[in-house]
């Protein structure tokens, strides 16, 4: 099987200990699936340049709020980065090269840009996998603030996060501790890919959806839902033996799944084809 070079690079990058994964490189390897001729060094250099410009503006005492303010001024006011409200589900919002070129994106990709700039400044930030809206926060004890990169680096407190959740879901939501837990590098990449997968599924772009699921499974090889979805995509694309294998593994892991009856019927159908 001819594995694309981008995927080999992605696998090599994520095979390291989580804290050593270079998020910029991993995200650009994802983008190379769509843009095979993409030169990742161009974008590494762009982020280096942004960080260097911000470095010149930082005071000797790097208090979190002041540092965030200076990053925000340069990133949003001078460079013009913005959240893409007009075309939120454009796949380009999920590709780091496009986000940097167009200076627009969705919460998770703008957060990735922000995190990677902060890392170059030795300013510790972490991603926060809040449902419906990805945030970041300073990794200092008891700071108690969050940064909304989609809304020009707006500073949020816990009550603001609850308000944001209520706006997203349309009913009163309590901010649970799990909503503000920092994510690993692998989890951040998986959420990026999940967003992209859903966009492709909604567009019925099955081949691209399949490629995205395959990348998710490189990060987390035994997620039952992703094994099932890959099996269903194989089925729809006519890869019967691959579909049979994945759907069989899915039921072996979760034999009492809510969709077990449907999957069993599919397996019976597939068994007659292979």
Describe the structure in your own words.
With about 270 residues, the protein is mostly helical. The chain has twelve helices and six strands. It has helices at about 5-15, 25-30, 40-55, 65-80, 95-100, 105-120, 160-170, 185-200, 205-220, 225-235, 240-255, 260-270; strands at about 80-85, 105, 125-130, 135-140, 145-150, 155. Strands 1-2 form a two-stranded parallel ribbon. Strand 1 (about 80-85), helix 5 and strand 2 (about 105) form a beta-alpha-beta unit. The protein is globular. It comes from Limnofasciculus baicalensis BBK-W-15. Belongs to the UPF0162 family.
How much helix, percentage-wise, in residues? Answer: 55-70%
Secondary structure class reads mainly alpha
Gross morphology: globular
Q: Mean of residue pLDDT?
A: 95
Low-pLDDT segments, ≥5 res: none
**Helix-strand sequence:** HHHHEHEHEEEEHHHHHH
Gyration radius (Cα, Å) is 20 Å
Q: Any idea how many domains?
A: 2
Measure the end-to-end span: 20 Å
Strand order of the largest sheet: 1-2
For this entry, what is the oligomeric state of its chains?
Answer: single chain
What's the total count of β strands? 6
**Major β-sheet profile:** 2 strands, parallel
- Count of runs of 4 or more consecutive helical residues: 12
Relative strand content:
5-15%
């Amino acid at each position: 099987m001819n594995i694309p070079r981008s995927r080999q690079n992605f696998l090599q990058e994520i095979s390291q200990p989580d804290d050593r994964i270079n998020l910029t490189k991993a995200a650009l390897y994802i983008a190379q699936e769509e843009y095979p001729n993409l030169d990742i060094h161009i974008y590494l250099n762009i982020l280096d340049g942004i960080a260097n410009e911000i470095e010149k503006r930082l005071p000797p005492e790097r208090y979190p709020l002041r540092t965030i303010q200076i990053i925000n001024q340069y990133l949003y006011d001078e460079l013009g980065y913005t959240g893409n409200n007009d075309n939120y589900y454009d796949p380009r919002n999920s590709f780091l090269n496009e986000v940097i070129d167009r200076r627009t994106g969705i919460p998770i990709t703008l957060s990735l840009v922000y995190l990677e700039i902060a890392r170059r400044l030795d300013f510790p930030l972490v991603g926060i996998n809040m449902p419906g809206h990805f945030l970041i926060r300073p990794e200092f004890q008891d700071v108690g603030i969050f940064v909304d990169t989609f809304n020009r680096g707006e500073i949020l407190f816990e009550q603001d996060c609850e308000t944001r959740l209520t706006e997203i879901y349309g009913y009163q939501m309590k901010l649970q501790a799990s909503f503000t837990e920092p994510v690993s590098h692998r989890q951040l990449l998986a959420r990026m890919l999940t967003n992209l997968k859903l966009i492709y599924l909604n567009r019925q772009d099955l081949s691209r959806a399949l490629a995205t699921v395959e990348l998710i499974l490189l990060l987390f090889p035994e997620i039952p839902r992703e094994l099932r979805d890959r099996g269903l995509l194989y089925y729809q694309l006519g890869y019967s033996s691959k579909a049979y294998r994945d759907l069989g593994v899915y039921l072996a892991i979760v034999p009492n799944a809510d969709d077990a009856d449907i999957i069993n019927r599919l397996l019976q159908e597939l068994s007659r084809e292979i």
